[in-house]
Design a protein that fits this description.
about 10% strand; 4 strands; Glutaredoxin; 4-stranded mixed beta sheet; about 210 residues; Glutathione S-transferase Yfyf (Class Pi), Chain A, domain 2; about 55% helix; 2 domains; alpha+beta
Length: about 210
């Protein structure tokens, strides 16, 4: 295979990249990385010393492409496939990128703060940081509630923004539930769950969901 994705099915940022790959229909080789395994971790650090996934290796072009948003941009440029995840129109592309950043920074990152804190020893908890993260999630969902008026996050077409939104909203709802309080966001998330690409990603993550601390 030309494209090899180093990832884990449970990771929200990895799910974002996999959704994009499924949307384009591009063939790729999935390479699950267990960062808790010393051998796996060492091999991955040789590829990308930062040690964060997802990372895509384009073996045909001899390129290492880290970061979920950059992976999607790379696919749009070199392997667009059947879906245009980055609109050709400049204004529409900017809106898609803005929404992509919105879901990553204001839902995904604070969600990871909350879940990460649950994995800390009792004497290392950060209750203030968790409260601030939950407030960030609430503020983001409140804002989205008033703005998500069309079928997808950046308009009528499914874009990179929706790739980011699906896993971000799934996990955010686990730490700061919104399905009963934000009807527009809830309806949007339901549309996302019915998207074949995300439904496939959810199914692939199911065997690992027990690892998410409740």
């Amino acid at each position: 295979m030309t494209l090899r994705l180093y990832y884990h099915p449970l990771s929200s940022f990895c799910q974002k990249a996999v959704i994009a790959l499924y949307e384009t229909g591009m063939a790729f080789t999935p390479q699950i990385v267990d960062l808790r395994d010393e051998k796996d971790r060492a091999a991955f650090l040789k590829l990308w010393p930062i040690g964060k996934f997802p990372v895509m290796k384009d073996e045909a072009r001899d390129r290492v492409v880290p970061e979920s948003s950059i992976i999607i941009e790379y696919l749009a440029q070199h392997y667009p496939g059947k879906s245009t995840l980055v609109p050709a129109d400049g204004d529409a592309a900017r809106q898609a990128r803005l929404r992509d950043r919105f879901f990553d920074l204001y839902l995904n990152m604070p969600m990871q703060k909350v879940i990460g804190d649950r994995m800390r020893p009792a004497d290392k908890k950060d209750s203030l940081g968790v409260d601030q993260a939950k407030q960030q999630i609430k503020s983001a969902v409140d804002l989205l509630e008033g703005e998500i008026g069309k079928a997808w996050a950046a308009g009528d077409a499914f874009t990179m923004a929706d790739c980011a939104a699906a896993p971000a909203l799934f996990y955010a709802n686990m730490v700061a539930p919104f399905m009963d309080t934000h009807t527009n966001v809830a309806a949007y998330f339901q549309r996302l769950t019915k998207r074949p690409s995300y439904a496939r990603v959810q199914k692939e993550a199911e065997p690992y969901l027990h690892l998410v601390p409740q």
